[in-house]
Each structure stands twice: as C-alpha cells, then as structure tokens.
UniProtKB/TrEMBL annotation, chain A:
Record SUPFAM superfamilies: Thioredoxin-like
Family annotation (CDD domains): TRX_Fd_family
Pfam families: 2Fe-2S_thioredx
Protein's name in the database: (2Fe-2S) ferredoxin domain-containing protein
Organism: Ructibacterium gallinarum
UniProtKB/TrEMBL annotation, chain B:
Xref: PANTHER family: NITRATE, FORMATE, IRON DEHYDROGENASE
Record keywords, A-Z: Iron, Iron-sulfur, Metal-binding
Molecular function in Gene Ontology: iron-sulfur cluster binding; metal ion binding
Annotated Pfam families: Fe_hyd_lg_C, Fer4, Fer4_7
PROSITE patterns: 4FE4S_FER_1, 4FE4S_FER_2
The name this protein goes by in its record: 4Fe-4S dicluster domain-containing protein
Organism of derivation: Ructibacterium gallinarum
Domain 4Fe-4S ferredoxin-type: 90-120, 121-151, 168-197
Amino acid sequence: MKISVCVGSSCHLRGSYDIINLMKENIESRHLEDKVELAAAFCLGKCTDGVSVKIDDEIVVGVNKENFDQIFKEHVLDVL
Amino acid sequence: MTIKKFDTQVQYLEYKVLREVARHAWDDTLVGSFDAIAGNIVGDKPTMRCCIYKERAIVAQRIDMASGGHKDNPNVIEVLNIACDGCPVGGYQVTDNCRGCIAHRCEDACKKGAITFDENQKAHIDKEKCVNCGMCAKVCPYSAIKDYQRPCVEACKIGAIGMNEYDKSAKIDNEKCIACGACVYQCPFGAIMDKSYILEVIDMIKKSENNTKYKVYAVIAPSIASQFTYDSSLKLGQVVSGIKALGFHSVVEAALGADMVAYNEAAELAEKGFLTSSCCPAFVSYVQKAFPQLKENVSHNLSPMATISKKIKEMDPEGKVVFIGPCTAKKMEIRLDTVKPYVDSALTFAELQALIDSRNIDMTSLEESPLDNASYYGRIFARCGGLADAVAEALLEQGVTDFQLEGISCDGIEECRMALLKASKGVLKANFIEGMACVGGCIGGAGCLTHGPKNKLEIDKYGKEAKEKSIEDAIKHFR
C-alpha cells in the first residue's frame, strides 16, 4: 500500500506534518513498514478540503488529528 | 500603461513582445504572425527609432528572443545588433564644466602628457596618448572630466562586454559572461536580452491537458514577495492563483529547497572548514571561469531551485517542473548535467507577468491561494545576507558548537570578486563566502519586474509569515 500525504501549501497550513508524524508513529508501532510505503505529494488537488491523503488510488480528504485514528483504521488497517 | 508594472519603458517593450508571442502560441497561430505582432507594437509613425522599418526589424529580433533565441549561441544572454545604438566609447572626456582655470592640475596629474589647452585655457585630452587612468578626473576641482562608458560595459563588472568592429555593436564574450543579466537591465535601448522559454512552457502546459497527462509544477523563488507590488490591492496569494490559472498544477516555494540547502551546507561547512555558497548560478559560474583554483571550495549542494525540484521529481517522476524567479542565470543553470534531470524550464517574473496577461487573467479578481512550504530562513535567501543567516541557524539547530562560522556576505559581483581574490591568496578573514552576483541579492535580479528600496523589508516580512519557524521543522519530513 502506498500512502501519500499532501504537503502542498493549503494542507501544510492545516497540519499535514502532524498527519505525517501520526502516520509514521502508527506504521512503526504496528510494524507495517513492509506493507506501507509512506510518501509526500505536492498537492493532491483538494486544496479546500485538506489535509488530503492518497491511499493507493483513493483520496481521503479532511484528515486531522481528531479523526486520524478512525481514518487510519478504515482506510489502512481494515484494507490491509 | 495604466498601472506601472515595470521600472523602465524598455522592460515594458520587451514585455509587450513576450505577451503577444504568448497569445499567438496559446492559439497555435505563432507561425506567420510576425506582421500582426509587429503591427501591434510598431504604429504608423516611429516612436523609438529613425523609421518604422527599423522598429519592425528590432521587433523581429525581439520575437526571435521571445521564441528561444539563436540555438547556435550557447549563452542565454544575447545582443540584438540592430537594436544596439552603438553608444560612443568616449572614455575620459572634458566637459563644459571646465572653466579654463590656470592651475592645470589635470596636466600635472597626467603622466602621459595627454592634456593640452586651447586659447581659452580649456583642457583637451589627446586620445592617442590617453590610457584612461582617470587621474585627471580625480584632481579637477570642478569635476569637469568625466568617464563616458557604454551603459552595458559599465553594468558588466566582470568585463565580458566588448565591441564588434564592423558595426560598433556590443559583443558578449561567452567565455567570461556569467549570464547575470546586469547588462540586460541596464541597456537603455533594450539591445541585450535573455532568451525566453515561454514557448516551451506554454507547450508543456497545453500538452499536460489540464494536468491529466502529467502534472506541471511551478517552483517559485522567494523574491516573489518583493514583486507584483505595482497594484496595492494585489495579494501574493492572488499571484499564486494566477499561476495556477495559467495551468500549473501546484506552486511550491523554492525556499523549501533553500531550507534543505542551508541544513546540508552547514554540515558541509563544518566538515570542510571553508566553503562558498552554490545558490547563485552566476556566482558559481564566476568562480569556475575567473577563480578555477577555488572551484572545489564551492558547496557541492545543488541550488535551492534544483534541490526542491529534485524532491518534486522523486514524488512525481512524470511531473514537469518550471522555475519562476528573478534570475536570467537560472536559464543557464538548468542546462547543467547535474540540474537538467530536475528542472524542465525557467521563467523570469517579467515573463510570468507576460504569460498571465496573455491569458487576460485579472489576478485581483481571483481568490487567494496559500503559499507556505518553507521556513523564515529559507525565505530570506532572497536577500543578501539571508543565506549566511540561515547557515548560522542550521549550525545551531544541528548542535554544531566546535565550529565558529565567520561568514562574509558579498553583495554584488564586485564584492564577490574581492572576497574570492583574497581567498585565492589565502588572506580572507572568513570561512564562508555567501556569493550573490546581483546587488541586494536575488531581489536585485535582472528578471524582476521592479527593483525598489523596500524590497528587502518585503522579504523579511514574508519570511516572518512562514508557518515553520525553524529549518528543522520545515525539512524534517523530506530528509
């Protein structure tokens, strides 16, 4: 699975670095390094709905610290 | 020109040609459109030259430059020989201010016996004997002796401009030229221009089919904060939206690349003990051409432009990257083998303005788009002294305490020459040279729309607006 967190200006201002940190922490603590490739992307084109995250071919918008756990479960853990 | 977008009428003229060429390129009507463009720019009566035929011939040369210039000339800076007015090469001349005094200090000062006096005691310089030392001018109590240099020669502090004997037009020595563009900005007739690659950018955007075939990224130099200030209602965020409206997928700050450079350069400096910066392509080119013995002391880091573009290409290998900045020398840098894989084309701010107007985009009517990738330190690279500040910060953030930074920030190529000269003799009292070919740094670049006294403040203000306050915070996810 490839996860790209948008680091374009809009998402950056909305905290994409926090999301990258949470991704890194979760991937590490759950030992998913072999299954998940984490990357950054300069703009996923959903600037008004960030933070945007592309998980394989699906773009998930509106990711924040509060809903991160649920999104990670639904779109990453349940899919793997 | 209702709003003054440029410093000079020459810039405005070059802009008009670029804009018209771009308009035809978007419409695929450029071939055979010379008459239309020339007619649009040259009226029924001459306003700039002796006749409309000469004006049209010059427009033809400008269209050539707007379309990429002469492929057989490796330099991106070229002389338009028809536009060149062949200014007099006077050297030292006695002006009307000479009062015919009786002291004749000029005569005493001249070691070559080149000064004579007429029946009114007024001085004359024998050009056969004069060696242009300037001693007579220095001693004249009335400042009546003046050095008349061609503006291009005066602008080129590294002596790369000479003269063609056959028509007295300016000639650029490509072996010496560092493509800084000082002559481009200074020539009062607009007879020296940088080649424009607007056509390849337009082609790149069109073929991307709205960024569906591949994405086109704009990497924007931090000096943009000092630009597009001609209309006080126009916000930087609207300029970013304007760039996107042209067809770019995303706009990324080159300053984020600058953060990465500062971080790596600090480590490289601490390791090697003496270094020059590598951000300014004209400075790097100058070191290679004029001080080859110091070549190895130039930082091995890519420039901020190339560094961030490399990251973009790593994330999106199919993507195309266009740098937009104040710099003509970047157009040379992107041809280097080390940079070519990462940057597909380079534009100046003046060309960006022409492209935006060629699409009739009214930036003031657009919603603002944010532009925030870099830290304060990456952003202040745009002004002289900023790079050294950033390297000092990076040393601090990396906890390097056993190395004391002694930086010298060289403001313009003349100061660079002095520092390099001292370094080559081993007498420079510094271990880091920040080399900026343009006076003021990038904000003094030839590709800027305007050059104002407040530009430095604009850069610092823009720097402080960055979300990330430290270099480490800005780059931690990119290492």
